[in-house]
Specification:
The structure is a single chain. By secondary structure, the chain is an alpha/beta fold. It has two domains: 130 residues, Tetratricopeptide repeat domain (Serine Threonine Protein Phosphatase 5, Tetratricopeptide repeat, Alpha Horseshoe), CATH 1.25.40.10; 339 residues, 4-Layer Sandwich (Purple Acid Phosphatase, chain A, domain 2), CATH 3.60.21. The protein is built from 17 helices and 17 strands. The strands form four sheets. It has a seven-stranded mixed β-sheet with strand order 4-3-8-9-13-15-14. A five-stranded mixed β-sheet has the order 7-6-5-16-17. Strand 6, helix 11 and strand 7 form a beta-alpha-beta unit. The longest helix is centred in the N-terminal third of the chain and has 23 residues. It is globular and about 75 Å long. The two termini are 35 Å apart.
Length: 499
């Protein structure tokens, strides 16, 4: 190796390290890649794996860790980073195997010790849950006895009118209650447990009645017979991931308008996990759904699932703030959420993306039986609606996440043509500018959690739809993060798994 080339590779590595420390992960990957092209080393691959982990590209992180280990079987950081990436995609046994390799050679490594304890705990928890699992005849929500609840004496806000008929819960939600709830959350308070269970149970009744793909639009004659249209609605706003960033959700409504008769909102999944105010975000969205059932819609995301909630904070947050039973109720309500929405018969909105088969059509989404199992299947169109990502090249390829797959512009164009769609709108990935128009304008990624996890520095964005001359006008608006109390992401999680 020419010493000058080796020196240049080291220089690029050091620059990459600086970008990594500054949370400029894309730039760090670019610099590490340039260094690898000149002089590949285990350290470079391992460092690039760390940047990929920060971007949640866990599949790519595993590939880089594999390359690092191939170059140097004794480089322990590569095993540790592969373990972190495996744990992120729920491959706990593979993760534990790598951690044990680290500890066999460096038994005092504190990071590996912590990760081992977390992995053993969750593996044992999963074994225990499987051992005691039985087919439940009823639902957790149906088992709630609201007469047994008393509202905590410390609560000073408005009452909530709760009715239960034939185990169906309904709530007469008011704007006064929501305003008081928001003020309470801003002060670090909690709503009464009776109210919490009632809001989830009543919202679940509404979600259950919705089809797997909700179809709505602004009022125009050409599609009136095919979808719900509200006379007074003038605008539709689509939001991407919000991930428990409660104060940024409040800012969305402040900047772009409140949910109301004139303004429809669609939240495109992943409203819980990561951020430490996931309960607050969920209660706000559910309460708005109760107040304006036809003016706010919520798609399911890959984080509205038990596996992800165990790892990324929502389950532990529910237990800490309310109870384990409330998490079970939220889980049940997530299973009732639609998988997709169709706006104006022209724009399909789902959390993840398109499919591994060219034969999927809109009617296949309409026919999904989301109550067949308690959690989404590990394969098929339900999984793909939640997990897949776009790629620049044509065709399909393995996912950079390690779960699902990636689809190219030709797949998007073909799907839109066969289903007579103008575009696909999806979320699921951070975009530094808040949104990105891809695949020759036929696919849009929108992400609405600015400065994601208090470290990415990205903008948030929304997509606004209005009508002009009976045609939809699509506009994109961005926003920055707002201040929040000094509570870090995943503050309540017992399973940080090193990431």
């Amino acid at each position: 190796m020419d010493p000058k080339l080796e020196e240049r590779s080291t220089e690029l590595k050091n620059l990459g390290n600086q970008e990594l420390k500054s949370n400029n992960f894309d730039k760090a990957i670019e610099l590490y890649t340039q260094a690898i092209d000149i002089f590949p080393t285990a350290i470079l691959y391992s460092n690039r794996a760390q940047a990929q982990i920060k971007l949640e590209n866990y599949g790519l992180a595993i590939e880089d860790a594999n390359q690092a280990i191939k170059l140097d079987k004794n480089y322990l950081k590569a095993y540790y980073r592969r373990a972190v990436a495996y744990s992120a995609i729920l491959e706990y046994k593979k993760s534990l195997s790598d951690v044990k390799i680290v500890l066999s050679r460096a038994p005092s490594d504190k990071n590996a010790q912590v990760l081992e304890k977390q992995l053993v705990r969750i593996i044992n928890q999963i074994k225990f849950e499987k051992a005691i699992a039985v087919e439940e005849k009823g639902s957790t929500i149906a088992s709630i006895d609201f007469d047994s609840f008393t509202v905590e004496s410390s609560y000073q806000g408005p009452d909530l009118d709760i009715k239960v008929e034939d185990k169906r819960v309904s709530v007469a939600m008011t704007q006064e209650y929501i305003s008081n709830m928001v003020d309470l959350f801003r002060k670090g308070g909690k709503i009464p447990k009776k109210h919490a269970f009632a809001i989830v149970a009543a919202a679940n009744e509404i979600f259950k009645e919705q089809p797997p793909m909700v179809e709505f639009g602004l009022k125009r004659p050409s599609t009136a017979a095919k979808e719900l249209q509200l006379e007074e609605a003038k605008k539709i706003t689509v939001c991407g991931d919000t991930h428990g960033q409660f104060y940024d959700v409040l800012n969305i409504f402040k900047r772009f308008g409140k949910v109301g008769k004139n303004h429809i909102y669609l939240f495109n999944g992943d409203f819980v996990d990561r951020g430490s105010w996931s309960c607050e975000v969920a209660f706000l969205l559910y309460s708005l759904k109760l107040l304006y059932p036809q003016n706010i819609y919520i798609n399911r995301g890959n984080h509205e699932t038990n596996d992800m909630n165990k790892v990324y904070g929502f389950e532990d947050e529910c237990k800490y703030k309310y109870s384990e039973k409330l998490f079970s109720c939220f889980s049940e309500s997530f299973n009732s959420l639609p998988y997709a929405s169709l706006i104006g018969q022209e724009y399909l909105v789902m959390h993840g993306g398109l499919f591994s088969s060219d034969n999927v059509v809109l009617d296949d989404i309409r026919k999904i039986d989301r109550f067949k199992s308690k959690q989404p299947p590990k394969e098929g169109i339900e999984m793909e609606l939640l997990w897949t990502d776009p790629q620049e090249s044509k065709g399909r390829s393995a996912s950079k996440r390690g779960i699902g797959m990636q689809f190219g512009p030709d797949v998007t164009a073909d799907f839109c043509e066969r289903n007579k769609l103008k575009a696909i709108i999806r979320s699921h990935e951070v975009r530094m500018g808040g949104y990105e128009i891809e695949h020759d304008g036929k696919l849009v990624t929108v992400f609405s959690a600015p400065n994601y996890c208090d470290m990415q520095g990205n903008l948030g964005a929304v997509v606004n739809f209005t009508l002009k001359d009976d045609e939809y006008e699509v506009e994109y608006a961005t926003f920055t993060h707002v201040d929040h109390p000094n509570i870090p992401p995943m503050n309540y999680s017992k399973n940080n798994f090193g990431f």
